[in-house]
What does this fold into?
Amino acid sequence: MKKLLSIALSLCLLLSVALADVTLTKVYKTEDLVSNTFHNGFVTAIGMTGENTVVLKDDGTYEYTKRLMQTAEDGTVAADLVYTFTGTYTKDGDTVVLMFPTAGTASENWGPLAGSYFQNTENASFADSDYAAGVVQCKEAESHLIADLFEGPYLLDSLTTSDAAFDAEECTVTITISGDTFDYVITNSDDD
It folds into this structure.
């Protein structure tokens, strides 16, 4: 009886581990961001770094966060740009496809750049797939949609939904899992 109970407990433990959320993180140094954001000069001049996190939930949904930050010598965060997307994903082996988000939030603190070039956006969001609702004020008179920043490995490197040929069903992010990190699978339009 003890052996049977032990086997049952082991099986329950295995199932709970198999169904646990998976968190993956990709870190970018300042050098990685050079020439990879459309605010390149501003982002790299103040020494921002990046961190993208994907949480794959066992119910088939994801939480995908793209973050740029400037950390002071004392460890405090001086500038912090955080965009979080939620939606569904598919998984085949180590390859994961994040479908276009059904919701997203943005919190922008441009730190030393706020007020002179950039406007802080404390809370902006879109929900229920109404991606055109989430607008953040950016550089000078320029603004963009939160959903614009979903695609691509770097934050602020593309304006997805602004493209006239935009199709939400075709706008996905594909990654491959490598331990507790991930790599982006980049395809060119010529690959179609």
